[in-house]
Design goal:
With about 90 residues, the chain is mainly β. The protein contains no helices and 9 strands. It is rod-shaped, with a radius of gyration of 25 Å. It starts with a strand and ends in a 10-residue tail after the last strand.
Length: about 90
């Protein structure tokens, strides 16, 4: 009987933050010779597997600033571009 075949998921569409990944989904029938034949989606039973899903990569870098302070009578603070560990709230 015909069945759904799926390829591996692609890499995430972004290198940081939320994006999308995709894969090929098709309805195929395997012949006794071992060859497969692509059929219309209506030939397969059951719901068609998703061909796209959301993916989440590393957190995007962001500017992090320290509190203002006084050094030799001047107001100063430090700024750094950092990436937060996903879900931890820890900035490294």
């Amino acid at each position: 009987p015909p069945s759904w075949t799926v390829s591996a998921w692609s890499k995430c569409s972004v290198t940081c933050g939320d994006g999308w990944c995709s894969r090929q989904v098709s309805c195929k029938r395997l012949a006794s010779s071992g060859a497969s034949r692509t059929l219309p989606a209506t030939a397969c039973e059951g719901a068609e597997p998703p061909d796209r899903q959301q993916c989440s990569s590393n957190s995007c870098p962001a500017w992090v600033s320290s509190s203002w302070g006084k050094v030799h009578g001047q107001s100063l603070r430090s700024d750094a571009c950092r990436r937060a560990n996903k879900g931890s709230g820890i900035v490294r």
